[in-house]
Amino acid sequence: MIADGTSFGLAPGGSDTDLKNLRLLVQLRWLAIAGQLVTIAFVELVLNIQLPLVFMAMTLGALLALNLISLHWLRRKRAPNIAWVLLIDILLLTVQLGLSGGGRNPFIALYLLQITLAAVLLHPGQCWRFVALTGLLSAMLTRVHLPLRLPEYEPFFTTYLAGMLVALMLNAVLIVTFVTRINRNLRDRDARLAQMRQHAAEEDHIVRMGLLASGAAHELGTPLASISVILSDWRAMPATSGDPELQHDIAQMQKAVDRCKSIVRGILASSGEPRGEAPVPTTVSAFLDDILAEWEENHDQAPLKLRNQVKPDIRILADAALTQLVSTVLENAHEVSPDWVELTASLRDEHLVFRVGDRGPGFRPDVLENLGKPYNSSKRGQGRGLGLFLVVNAVRKLGGDVTVSNLQAGGALVTLKLPLDKLSVTGDRR
Q1: What are the helix (H) ranges across 237-356?
Q2: Quick one: 280-429 is in which CATH superfamily?
Q3: Span 101-133, pLDDT tens digits
Q4: 3-class SS at 314?
């Protein structure tokens, strides 16, 4: 017979893997209950072997009650103590074997299932204790059991061989089912742990970059102020005041210095307050207009093709960080495709989607495969690939997603998918 148990001594916060394993045990326990009922009925009605049905029914009732308790703990997401699960399994199996011939019952081979589960789920020390317990219970069953009462005409050896064959096949099927699915759960757990370690490493990298950026911003403040003063003096000098071409060049230099000072102030503001500038209510159209205006101000000869497919317009909360995300992707596209960059905004599945396309050489396969990792870039040079790395991690922290692909006609497409519930103003649309 087959017997499975449930868990007592449950921990308050169960891991995903433990809960999956308990759910698997619950599912297979239902099969065990059904299998025991069929086996008992076959032995009693077809083979005419008398069994202590009342006591075996009580054991089945206990197994059913334990399964219902397991379902209760699953609903409460409580972590099972797997050692207790297997201990109750082996004790209930021993009871059923003791009621049906003990060591002479061919289903004693099902102890191998319990040992297999212990080897997969428990620590080596616990596993060896289960091996010792199994040996002790098997030896006890040779002395303490209710004998099978075979019909006078039924040869015991023939019945035993048939039962052993059934027990062997059943044991094999259950072991493969258990071990395959439990190993899959363990692989899923290992994959989640690896992903968590990767995210922790990425966050550590971002923190170190933020510290470096903050320090650089402090150091750049003084020379930028000095350059600004020098440019003001140059503008007022007699040698330059009458030369329109020099005045234009000085104005462009002052404009570049003012932009650098603005970037430095933004870095310092972001490092002083975790969320940087407070988000301000705006609309998608206004946000895109600001992006376009900033682009035209900094890229005189590089047109940006803007397509706004968000109709009707929608109100959102935007801050400098959101602007920086889109601008970083646009700058990357401009580096590889100076003559053509396209920005498209649309709504898809309650997400605001920005798509940036270019006509550059596209991404190498290894860059596509390692999306989101630092220093992962098709461009040569030290420090390349950090922009996209920061964009990917910032979007993921907002609950969104970033995908990159190469276009068949040439060029690349970067898609930023941001959840509206993180951007919208009380879901108001106009």
Answers
A1: 238-241, 244-272, 284-298, 320-336
A2: Histidine kinase-like ATPase, C-terminal domain (3.30.565.10)
A3: 887 788 888 888 888 878 877 888 888 998 999
A4: strand
- Compute and round to an integer the Cα radius of gyration of the chain: 35
Rounded Cα distance, 284 and 39, in Å: 68
Alpha carbon separation from 426 to 149, 420, 422, 429 (Å, rounded): 76, 10, 10, 9
pTM for the predicted model, two decimal places: 0.46
CATH code 1.10.287 region(s) in the chain: 199-272
- Which tokens go with 159? 């019945």
Rounded mean pLDDT of 336-356? Answer: 90
Give the tens place of pLDDT for each residue, 255-306.
Answer: 888 777 776 666 655 554 444 455 678 889 998 998 888 888 777 667 888 9
Q: Using an 8 Å Cβ cutoff, are 88 and 59 in contact?
A: no
Supply 360's token pair.
């550059």
Q: What is the CATH number of domain 199-272?
A: 1.10.287
The SS3 of residue 4 is coil
